[in-house]
Design a protein that fits this description.
single chain; two-stranded parallel ribbon; two-stranded antiparallel ribbon
Amino acid sequence: SDPNRLQSVLNEELSNFDVWLKCNKLSVNLKKTNYIFFKSRQKELNYHFNLFFGNQPLVQANMTKFLGVYVDEHLTWKHHISFICKQISKSVGIISRSRFYLSSKTKLTLYYALIYPYITYCNSTWSSTYVSNLNRIFCLQKRVVRVITNSDYRAHSAPLFAKLGILDVFQVNSFQIAKFMFYYHNLLLPPMFLNLFLTSGQVHNYGTRTAGCYRSHSCRTNLKQFTILYQGPKIWNSLPISITSSSSFLTFKTKMLEFLLKKSKS
C-alpha cells in the first residue's frame, strides 16, 4: 500500500542479490533484465519506481520473454499467442504446399515436429485466457488437419481431429491440467504443492458422495477462474473413476488421451 516503502524494499533486495552473485562469481545480463507491474487493465499507476541493480537503473517493461513464454503486465497472454500463431502459420503453409506430394502419415509427422511443440509447451500457463484468444490457434489447427487428410476447406474438423488422434488446443490444456492433478493426487509434486487443494471430506466431517472431490479456490475475477487453482479440481472431478484411479502415470496418460478423443467424436 506504500509505494515508497515498496521501492525501498525492492532496491534493498536487489542489492543483496547483487552481492550474492559477486560472492559466487556470477553475473546478470542487464540488457535482458527488467521489471513489470502486474495489474488489471482498469487500474492505472500514478507513481514511477526507480529500481537499481549494481548501480545500474532497471527498465520497466510491459511485456517480457521468460523461459520461452511472453508474459505481459495484464496476464492476457495475447503476445505469446500471437507469437505461436506466427510460428504455426509458417508450418501450416509448408505442409499445405506439400499436400499433394506427401502421404497423410508424413504430413502428420510434420505436424508433430513443427506445430505440436508450440501448442503444448507451457500450455497450462498461457492457455489461462479467454476462448476468443485461443480460437486463433484452433483455427490454424483446423486448417492443418484438413490439409493432412486432403479434405475440403469447409469440411467439419471434429471427425478429422478424432481420425488423426490429434488434440485441439483446448483439449491439450485439459490434458496438461489433468496430468498436474494426477501428480498432486498421488503426492508426486514438490512439498510446496502438498496443501494446494482440499477435498470436500477435509472441509466437513460428514460423508457425502463428493467427499473425495477436490474443491476449487474461490474466484472473484475471470483471471483467477482461468488458473489451475480453479480449473484443476473442475477438470479432475469431471473425469471417470477409471481414469483418476489409474495405478501409473503411463496408464493415466493413455486413458486420458482415449477419453478426450472419444469425447471429440461425440
